[in-house]
Design brief:
Shape: globular
Distance between the termini: 32 Å
Number of strands: 18
Strand order of the largest sheet: 4-3-5-6-7-8
Radius of gyration: 23 Å
Strand content: 15-25%
Largest sheet: 6 strands, parallel
Structural class: alpha/beta
Helix content: 25-40%
Length: 450
């Protein structure tokens, strides 16, 4: 068996399990109230809901066991080709796998036609600025372009007992005492964080262990979250025929070399020291926008509120995050670089994360260069060789970039993803008994790229 290719092995296992489960079903061995338990990365599964509580959408009907396993085997095989390991794939929810599937892949089978109430605890009005208004004066539907429409959003704490899901934004939570008393075991408690593990909490000297045993689901930019909300995604395009429209855009709009924009002038990875060194080599070829390192504060005011159209003129963008943590790729990559037809130069997530989550040959990685001087020399070389530079854009023929962060007017899919998770993810309830096994600055972050 070890000599079989990984893809053939996955399909073999999927087929074997399909036959086994079909035999079990035909023999009546599977019962509705059968219990299951498991533990993975601090998650304890505490049982499945009874079958009478599962109502399938009548318009679609449930997929049979064979169809379900074949569909999941296909998604797993696609993720293997992207570079994920079997263990990583096993840690992903059905929603997470679907979000990385090729364009046009149907969503997972819905487990219900129930109507869900989602309660955003305490900070709903503040979060509305990004996830509903998208930093504008307009209110957008949280279900805009969502694959499901059977959810309602509430900020009213009087809905505590009625809510099917509760969302707690850890960045603003001051202590566990802010959380309500729980009275329903079937209510999904979800912790939300858009920041890296270094910046999970804004208030006080808190520890994740203070919240052990409270949450059922995770919600973060990482794809192994129960509710993945990445800042952006790149997926294989459905049309396999190359479209060269990007070539004209890149050839005509790129009049400057490299830029960086920022308002947070700190970072545990020494990013601004690197920018300072790079500036000493590139001089006028590197433009610093924002308040850091005496940058230009007038060309792009508003930061998240308004799109910085000036970035469209640059060939490269320094996508330097404030932390080097697992899968931490933000709008700096997906909007400031890819959306602007620029090549991102990445400091943040690991090189391996970038290879799994981003299109091939679409980025430069800062740690691949001996120092800032070596990077500067390579950028100048690419600036002189148009054809070599254009090779970093050829992926645009085969991949699509999807921005979903809510900044600069882009759509936010946070609340849609919760609704989708309620529809698509396993109905088995679980608890994060040890949060730091899933979310940890010690285990998930490093001072430098790897």
């Amino acid at each position: 068996m070890r000599n079989l290719p990984r893809l053939a092995f996955v399909l073999f296992i999927g087929t074997a399990v399909t036959i086994f489960c079909t035999l079990l079903l035909s023999s009546g061995f599977l019962t509705a109230d059968k219990k299951s338990s498991a533990s993975r990365k601090g998650q304890v599964f505490i049982g499945e809901e009874r079958e009478e509580n599962k109502i399938f959408a009548p318009t679609l009907g449930p997929l049979n066991v064979s169809q379900q396993f074949l569909k999941m085997a296909s998604l797993d095989a696609h993720l293997l080709r992207r570079g994920f390991t079997n263990e990583e794939i096993g840690s992903m929810s059905p929603l997470g796998k679907w979000l990385l599937a090729p364009e046009g892949t149907p969503p997972p089978q819905s487990n219900t036609n129930k109507f869900y109430l989602i309660l955003i605890w305490k900070y709903g009005q503040f979060l509305e600025r990004r996830h509903i208004r998208r930093f504008t004066s307009t209110k957008f539907s949280p279900w805009d372009q969502c694959s499901v429409q059977n959810c309602m959003l509430s900020y009213d704490e009087n809905d505590l007992q009625r809510a099917d899901a509760m969302v707690f934004h850890l960045h603003f939570t001051k202590s566990p005492s802010e959380l309500p008393v729980r009275s329903r075991t079937d209510q999904r408690w979800i912790f939300l964080t858009d920041e890296s593990p270094f910046h999970t909490f804004l208030h006080g000297n808190q520890k994740l262990s203070h919240y052990d045993g409270l949450f059922n689901w995770s919600m973060s930019y990482r794809m192994d979250s129960d509710v993945p909300v990445p800042y952006g995604r790149t997926i294989r395009a459905s049309d396999s025929s190359p479209i060269k429209q990007w070539t004209a855009i890149v050839r005509t709009s790129k009049t400057k070399l490299v830029a960086v924009m920022g308002s947070n002038c700190s970072g545990r990875n020494g990013r601004w020291s690197y920018v300072k060194a790079l500036k000493s080599f590139l001089r006028s070829d590197l433009d610093i926008l924002g308040r850091c390192l005496d940058g230009n504060r007038t060309i792009c005011p508003g930061h998240f509120d308004q799109d910085c159209t000036a970035l469209s003129a640059y060939k490269f963008y320094l996508s330097f995050e404030n932390s080097n943590c697992e899968e931490y790729l933000t709008e700096k990559v997906f909007w400031n670089a890819y959306h602007k037809y620029a090549v991102p130069i990445i400091m943040g997530a690991s090189r391996r994360d970038c290879r799994r989550l981003l299109p091939p040959h679409s980025f430069l990685y800062a740690d691949d260069f001996a120092d800032a001087n070596a990077l500067a020399d390579y950028l100048k070389y690419l600036d002189r060789d148009d054809e070599r530079y254009l090779e970093y854009h050829k992926w645009r023929d085969y991949y699509r970039v999807i921005n979903e962060h809510g900044y600069f007017g882009s759509i936010s899919k946070h609340y849609c993803r919760i609704c989708e998770a309620l529809n698509y993810n396993s109905v088995a309830l679980k608890v994060y008994t040890k949060l730091e096994r899933f979310w940890s600055k010690a285990n998930d972050c490093s001072p430098a790229g790897a």
